[in-house]
Write a structure and sequence with these properties.
about 325 residues; alpha/beta; Rossmann fold; 2 domains; 9-stranded mixed beta sheet; 16 helices; about 55% helix; binds NADP nicotinamide-adenine-dinucleotide phosphate
């Protein structure tokens, strides 16, 4: 069972003056840099030359090349896209690691399946806020937070768990709950949910519904409004109040139809395929494919196909400014 941590386990002022290099100033990098700085940590950004280095400077952070950031910091936080972890670690970080430094991640993928081999005398921790960077900042402003998972891969110093909990606190985790995990467990559950439900399953369901209505002769704008745009209404209800909130907030016609017909579409055979997918992820099948060079081209091709889907055409037509 995953343990739920209490905020009382976080030593007071633990982050004050801690030298943390945030590698990458993208979605998570920007948000976490701001929140960790607010908690008193000494933050510098590790980045290559380019757009995000400029953005970090504009936000008044000192920006260093990756290797200088690794030499300076006690805590090196990888907030780069997962496929970039391996080469940045090998070329810029590993040569500067020495006892007393701690590696830190917000996703378990690259350490979990061995893309990064953590040296024996180096600490390694995971802090995963279950929110986008923008949401993290937004929630922090409004006094909210999000479920955060923390894991300790190695702890030669002995205070790595306290460090992870203090970072989770700075990101607002204790406002909703901070739970224990491992690198593989975090990554497996996250990848599975993204692939089967949130991103992969949801978009295929939407595309199938849209196509069914179009093939039956309904206008694309109607298919779009019914299957795409109204999705947000039900997702918001489900996320804010659970299943009962969803079923009780919509019409009884929609609720009865949904509860009875949904199972005709998502039947028990789906569960079998979901289990296969989860097994594949847990055994490292996806990690091996995604973290291998070369798959980037396939990714770009897939993105191109999605961008020309009929849903995109309809979306553009509906949202283009009306001509007088
Ligand atoms: N996004 C989320 O909502 C979310 C949630 C939880 C956990 N995570 C995890 O957080 C980590 C960061 O994800 P993210 O979505 O925040 O990443 P991201 O926004 O895509 O990261 C962009 C940053 O990485 C730099 N970068 C990209 N490719 C690089 C390369 N090959 N070499 C060096 N720098 C490179 C970019 O620099 P340039 O501007 O120079 O390109 C930019 O600073 C990942 O491990 C992810 O799984 C993300």
């Amino acid at each position: 069972m995953s343990r739920k941590y209490a905020e009382s386990e976080v030593p007071e002022g633990f982050l004050v003056g801690k030298k943390i290099a945030i590698l990458g100033y993208g979605k998570q990098g920007r948000a976490q840099a701001h929140l960790l700085k607010k908690a008193g940590a000494d933050i510098k950004i590790g980045a290559r030359k380019g757009f995000s280095a400029e953005a970090a400077r504009a936000d008044r952070f000192t920006v260093l090349p990756f290797s200088e950031a690794a030499q300076w910091a006690d805590i090196i936080h990888f907030l780069l896209p997962d496929p970039a972890h391996k080469s940045v670690f090998k070329d810029h970080i590993n040569p500067h690691l020495k006892t007393g430094k701690t590696l830190c991640f917000s996703h378990g993928l690259s350490v979990g399946w061995g893309d990064i081999s953590v040296p024996k005398d180096i600490g390694c921790i995971l802090i995963t806020p279950k929110a986008t960077g923008a949401k993290l900042l937004q929630q922090h402003e409004s006094g909210g937070g999000c479920i955060t998972l923390v894991g300790v891969y190695s702890a030669p110093i002995g205070t790595e768990l306290q460090l992870a909990l203090a970072m989770a606190q700075a990101l607002g985790g204790f406002r909703e709950g901070v739970y224990e995990t491992t690198f593989r467990a975090e990554a497996s559950a996250n990848l599975f949910a993204e692939q089967a439900v949130l991103c992969g399953g949801m978009t295929e369901l939407v595309k199938a519904g849209f196509k069914t209505l179009i093939d039956a002769g309904y206008p694309p704008a109607v298919a779009y409004a019914e299957c795409v745009r109204d999705l947000k209404l039900t997702v918001d209800l489900l996320a804010s109040g659970g299943l009962s909130c969803l079923w009780e907030s919509i019409s009884t016609t929609a609720a009865y139809g949904g509860m009875t017909a949904g199972k005709r579409i998502i039947d028990s055979s789906v569960q079998g395929r979901m289990k296969d997918l989860l097994n594949d992820i847990e055994q490292g099948g996806f990690a091996q494919k995604w973290l291998t060079d070369g798959v980037q081209n396939e990714f770009e091709q897939l993105l191109k196909v999605e961008k020309s889907h009929p849903i995109e055409v309809t979306h553009a037509e509906i949202n283009s400014p009306q001509k007088p």
